[in-house]
């Protein structure tokens, strides 16, 4: 029997950054639909602060993601989930792991809105053309009566940008990406050429990345005097705040670009054969994508021609 107004709800979303950002609109739709409920999020450490700041959740639990052989970890997680008294679970992770959480719960199980066999509200993705993760998630939520999410509202993510001494007109360049998938990176020398182009137009490029990108960001800054190296100086909150003030953002298919695009920056995201924008492009008010099988074949002229209109 379907519970019309569940009062104890669990939402599961574990990782990764881009996927988490894409689910923020779903978090907000769930919160709006269940205003009187107590909603708990099960997530991982990197997303705790963002989840707590969102206002969507009454509690945030951390999943330590026990390995299959760590029986104590699984038992502890089972006790925690059982003790929560959840009447409904929205499984936005939709993975083998989160499906395992459903299977480990004793009967009677809570209502489960997800893809695992046996779920009370089971979403089965239809065949045919590739569908974006947000569209699939909207269809999943609709099974439980949650209205279709709109664009995410990231106004809850704030940061003091004064220490960065920002120029009045700036663009964000995100040349990094997953270290184990180098094919997702447009060559650093092309980013340097783009930085010089932006400088000629009176826009200061801000080079963003983590420690793993320090060498290539430093190399871009050396050959594009006037670009600002902000490697390692921007939190997730700062990325969102920077995105709200940016005149343009260009980057590879990587988590920070999802955050920047969702914050409202006019964005161009570059894709190779390693990923499909039809499935996982960032969502935001002004987002364009450009794809080549091999990003090294993507020219500066191609990127300039594809920049969002008006930037």
From TrEMBL:
GO CC annotations on file? cytosol
Q: Which GO terms describe its molecular function?
A: ADP-heptose-lipopolysaccharide heptosyltransferase activity
InterPro entries in alphabetical order: Glyco_trans_9 (IPR002201), LPS_LOS_Heptosyltrfase (IPR051199)
**UniProt keywords, alphabetically:** Glycosyltransferase, Transferase
Top-level division of the source organism's lineage: Bacteria
Which N-terminal residues, if any, form the signal peptide? none
Q: Which residues form a coiled coil?
A: none
Any one of the GO BP annotations: lipopolysaccharide core region biosynthetic process
What are the TM regions of this chain, as residue ranges?
Answer: none
Q: Name one Pfam family in it.
A: Glyco_transf_9
Name of the protein in its database record = Glycosyltransferase family 9 protein
């Amino acid at each position: 029997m379907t519970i019309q107004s569940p009062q104890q709800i669990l939402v599961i979303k574990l990782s990764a950054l881009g996927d988490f950002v894409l689910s923020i609109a779903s978090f907000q739709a769930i919160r709006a639909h269940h205003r009187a409920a107590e909603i708990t999020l099960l997530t991982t450490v990197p997303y705790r602060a963002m989840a707590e700041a969102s206002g969507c959740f009454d509690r945030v639990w951390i999943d330590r993601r026990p390995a299959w052989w760590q029986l104590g970890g699984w038992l502890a997680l089972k006790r925690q989930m059982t003790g929560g008294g959840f009447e409904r679970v929205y499984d936005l992770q939709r993975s083998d792991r989160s499906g395992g959480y459903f299977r480990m719960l004793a009967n009677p199980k809570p209502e489960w809105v997800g893809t695992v066999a046996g779920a009370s509200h089971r979403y089965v993705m239809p065949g045919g053309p590739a569908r974006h993760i947000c569209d699939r998630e909207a269809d999943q939520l609709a099974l439980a009566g949650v209205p279709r999410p709109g664009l995410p509202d990231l106004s809850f993510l704030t940061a003091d940008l004064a220490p960065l001494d920002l120029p009045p007109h700036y663009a964000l360049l995100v040349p990094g990406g997953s270290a184990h998938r180098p094919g997702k990176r447009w060559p650093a020398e092309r980013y340097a050429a783009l930085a010089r182009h932006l400088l000629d137009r009176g826009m200061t490029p801000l080079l963003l990345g983590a420690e793993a990108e320090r060498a290539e960001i430093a190399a871009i800054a050396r050959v594009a005097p006037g670009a600002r190296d902000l490697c390692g100086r921007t939190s997730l909150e700062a990325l969102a705040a920077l995105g709200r003030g940016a005149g343009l953002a260009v980057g590879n298919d990587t988590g920070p670009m999802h955050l920047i695009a969702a914050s409202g920056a006019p964005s161009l995201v570059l894709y190779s054969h390693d990923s499909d924008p039809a499935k996982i492009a960032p969502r935001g008010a002004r987002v364009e994508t450009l794809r080549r099988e091999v990003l090294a074949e993507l020219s500066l002229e191609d990127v300039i021609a594809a920049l969002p209109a008006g930037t």
